Amino acid sequence: MRCTARLLTGTALAVGAAGLAVAPAYADGGGLDVSPASVVPGGDVTVSTADCGDGGTAAGDASAVGAGDFTLAPDGDERAAGEFRVPPSAQPGTYEIVVTCSEGGKRVSGDLVVTLTAPREQVHPRGSVKTGVGGAFDRDPVQTAVGVSALAVAAAGGTWLLHRRARGDGF
After folding, report:
1. DSSP code per residue over 68-110
2. pLDDT 10s digits, 111-170
3. Which residues are paired to 72 by β-bridges?
């Protein structure tokens, strides 16, 4: 039993240490934020990063998509942000946008997807489903009131019967 406990404890510690060693690399949270991530030719794109430090500036390169160079300036939220326009002649595909920080020369990149159709907003269904059974709330308020009253009486009666049964009075 002690051998098994030591083996399990040792394994758990090893797995935990491995998780801690990997966590900082994953939790860095850096990189380049491209918004919107998907755009049609002729659309505007905003790029921002926190990797250049508070008040840092950067030079952006969107030549992969044909937009050329752009600048990133501090935006007041400890980030550097900039904007460029995707040329109307851009072809559909995924393009890498690269930013080089002014101080330290750190390079960060992000992907921009160019599509021919604009992303549509999600449409939520409205109205009721015609099932032939009727809806929960009909147009007649009298029928609705009668239905709600019947449900309330049934709930009260069921509660009373369960209470009697719990006391031992039976049905």
Report:
1. -EEEEEE-SSS-EEEEEE--TTPPSEEEEEEEEETTTT-EEEE
2. 999 998 866 677 788 877 777 665 555 567 788 788 889 999 999 999 988 888 788 776
3. 58
Residue type at 90 in one-letter notation: A
Please check whether residue 100 is in contact with residue 62, taking contact to mean a CB–CB distance below 8 angstroms. no
**Pairing label, strands 107-114, 93-101:** antiparallel
- E strand or H helix at 8, and its extent? helix 2-26
Displacement of CA 97 from its chain's centroid (Å): 22
So what's the pLDDT on residue 16?
46
Distances (CA, A) of 49 to 13, 64, 68, 96, 151: 36, 19, 18, 15, 58
**Torsion 44-50-60-95 (CA) sign:** negative
